[in-house]
Amino acid sequence: MSGNSDTWPSEPSNQPRVPSIPLSDANLGPNGEPTIGNLVKDATASASTLFRAEIALAKAELVREAKKAGMGSGLIIVAAVLLLYASLFFFVFLGFLLAIWLPEWAAFGIVFLVLLIVAIGLILAGYLFLKKLRAPEKTIESVNELSSVIPGRGDSTGGMAHPQIPPAHDPMRS
Q1: Spatial separation of the C-alpha atoms in residues 152 and 147, rounded to whole Å
Q2: CA–CA separation, 16 vs 100, rounded Å?
Q3: 0.70 exceeded by pTM
Q4: What segments bear the compositional bias annotation Polar residues (predicted)?
Q5: Which residues contact 42 (CB under 8 A, 6 or more apart)?
Q6: Spatial CB neighbours of 124, under 8 Å, sequence gap ≥ 6
Q7: 111 phi and psi, to 5 degrees?
Q8: In angstroms, rounded to a whole number, what is the distance separating the alpha carbons of residues 87 and 107?
Q9: How many helices (H) and strands (E) does the chain have?
Q10: What is the DSSP letter of 157?
Q11: How far apart are CA 94 and CA 114, in angstroms?
Q12: If 0-12 CB within 10 Å is exposed, 13-18 middle and 19+ buried, where does residue 111 land?
């Protein structure tokens, strides 16, 4: 026997063949350069991975910040409730203080009127504040500009529509 024939076992013909590891990169074309299809596939996969990673990062940051905001809001609400109870005792104190110089009905009537006037003033201030609210104009403008950025939409890009998608019928032009 000559060569290596005695060291390699013979392969049975009825057994499936095991795939071998290629000696060259399967993503490269015949000239050794990556094909356009593989480059597009890699770019799409990278963009998709990057997009998912950005969403995961934003989600993690928002969850962490939402927990902090929830804790802070809870503490502020507890403090506001305690302040509400404290204000009740202050106004009772104020009524009894005025009762030293005035009849009790007049003293507590004055405290009631002061609270009523302050509440009406705060309601008017809140109403005026809410009346000054405006629509998010910059956001609306930005969203409206998206149609000019998307290929095949709008006249400003000069781009052509995707060859596989027929152009949409614009009822304003016909």
Answers
A1: 9
A2: 107
A3: no
A4: 1-17
A5: 27, 34
A6: none
A7: -60, -45
A8: 17
A9: 3, 0
A10: S
A11: 11
A12: buried
> Angle at Cα 145 formed by Cα 142 and Cα 147, nearest 5°?
135
Task: Return the amino acid letter for 171.
Answer: P
Other beta carbons within 10 angstroms of residue 35's beta carbon come to: 13
Domain ranges of the chain: 36-139
Rounded to 5°, angle at Cα 85 from 83 and 89: 110
What are the residues facing 28 on neighbouring strands? 34
User: Using alpha carbons only, how large is the chain's radius of gyration in Å?
Assistant: 38
Contacts of residue 91, Cβ cutoff 8 Å, sequence gap at least 6:
111, 115
- Three-state DSSP class for residue 21: coil
Is residue 136 within 8 Å of 144, Cβ to Cβ?
A: no
Nearest partner of 95 among 114, 80, 81, 82, judged by Cα: 114
Taking only the tens of pLDDT, the chain with its 174 residues reads: 455 555 555 656 676 676 666 566 666 766 767 778 888 888 888 888 888 888 888 888 888 888 888 999 999 999 999 999 999 999 999 999 999 999 999 999 999 999 999 999 999 999 999 998 888 788 778 777 767 766 655 554 455 555 566 666 766 765
Task: Please report the sign of the dihedral spanned by the C-alpha atoms of residue 56, residue 57, residue 60, residue 61.
Answer: negative
Whole-angstrom distance, CA of residue 150 vs CA of residue 143: 12
